[in-house]
Amino acid sequence: MFHTPPASSLHDMKKSVQQEQQQQQQQHQQSSSSSSSTNHTSSSSSSSSSSGGSKDGRIKLDELASLTLEDDSSSSRISSSSAVVVEGGDPAGARSWKAKHALRSHYDSVRCVAFHPTQPALLSASEDHTFKIWNLNMLAPSTSRKTTTEVEPIYTYRGHRGAVFSAKFSSDGARIVTAGADRTVRVWATAPLNLDPYATHGCGVGYGLRVLEGHNDIIWDIALHPHIPTHVFSASADGSVRLWDTDKPSPLVSSYAFPSTSTSSSPEDRPVPTCLEVIQTDVRRVIAGYKNAAVAAYDIETGKALMQFAHQDSIVGTAQINKIVTHPTLPLAIVGREDRKIEVLDLSSGRVVHSMVGHQDAVSALAMDPAGLQFFSGGHDSSLRVWDLSRVSSAGPACVQEVNVHRPKHHESVHCIAYQPNKSYVASAGADSTIKLYQ
Fold first, then answer.
1. Are 122 and 427 in contact (CB under 8 A)?
2. Is 352 helix (H, G, I), strand (E, B) or coil?
3. Does the pTM of the predicted model rise above 0.90?
4. Among 105, 173, 290, 398, which is least packed by CB within 10 angstroms?
5. What is the C-alpha to C-alpha distance for residues 186 and 192, in angstroms, rounded to an integer?
6. pLDDT, tens digit, for every residue of 97-153?
7. In terms of Cα–Cα distance, which of 131, 120, 132 is closest to 439?
8. Could you give the strand order of the β-sheet that contains 426-430, starting from the edge strand earlier in sequence?
9. Per-residue pLDDT reduced to its tens digit, 355-407
């Protein structure tokens, strides 16, 4: 049974509560008067405690795995105040890339994107056996928080009998060269950028110019010579790198094979090239990356291997080169590997000058800034990362931004990245069939 406390007890309780309230008011007044004098100290201490790393607030490369990313639809990027920095350098003032547009028209993974050399046009190649050309002038203005998708490709090219793995504009922009799973290199005319996307619906337009045959297996990558629009290099799973001249009656000009120490003559024992690029600082050479983690540079005219970067301790398949790019002004090449590493190669000395773990999964894409100040990397961990080549320490270039982008499918995510020549856009595409544009 509940008993009401006596009046004396209630009086004592009321008096005690009043005394506590008076004490709290006095303490509040004292804290208010002292807060102005300690405001600067407290704010500086809170900022240092929120940096979450070393004393200077920088996050080391081995802490990348602990980063928490926002959803991609909300411009998930690391701001300049919390940029991922390897060692040294203030991220303030660095450009922060933000997703502005999302292009959706493909029905399967997008394996390659490329910008027109002079016009606002984008090329995309997909495993749905098609490649498309987009007019970027048709993009609607985007808001600060959402990407826009109100655009259709101006033309969809069909002709390949399998996945299209690589597509590039010629240096003059007049032609498009593609290659893929059907073992062919195909040459096409570039569709007019003012073409009505619906005008040719259901009509066969003859943009195909030529089909180059000769490879015996899938063609993984192609590269076009920057000064000779008709010269095309192809890297195939048959173990060869080939040079084609698209204007000659007999288009095959030369074939390059990796110097192997194996005594076997079987094609299955050849190192398989997976990617290649014409060296920007010396267009007389082409460099290729291989499945066995090796890299070789060839003289285009003689076909001789001038330089090799071999990894004898690598297990074939676990450290294969997925992408290789070269610097526009320095004798450097950057490779992305299956074992999550990014390596910087010195093409003058033949040495690996930096080797670092760049992603939490395989590094599948790279793109070099046309000015050579930074490069993008993409991985199957669904992230893009921006690396600053002006801030290089013993650990490698500084990572200044990370963006969570394409959703994974079948353990794959980002397939390709490209810089627009005038640096207005960066494009990425991946296994989620989506192309994203950043500004």
1. yes
2. strand
3. no
4. 173
5. 19
6. 999 999 999 999 999 999 999 999 999 999 999 999 999 998 876 555 555 556 889
7. 120
8. 99-104, 434-438, 426-430, 414-419
9. 999 999 999 999 999 999 999 999 999 999 999 998 888 888 999 999 988 99
Placement of tokens 């990362």 in the chain: 385
For residue 302 the two structure tokens come to 């003689």
pLDDT in tens, 408-421: 998 899 999 999 98
Q: How far is residue 73's CA from residue 405's CA, in Å, rounded to a whole number?
A: 9
Which residues are CB-neighbours of 323 under 8 A, at least 6 positions away? 275, 289, 335, 336, 363, 364, 365, 366
Residue with tokens 């301790």: 313
CB 102 within 8 A of CB 435: yes
Which token pair is 407? 């959703």
Count how many residues are written for the chain. Answer: 439
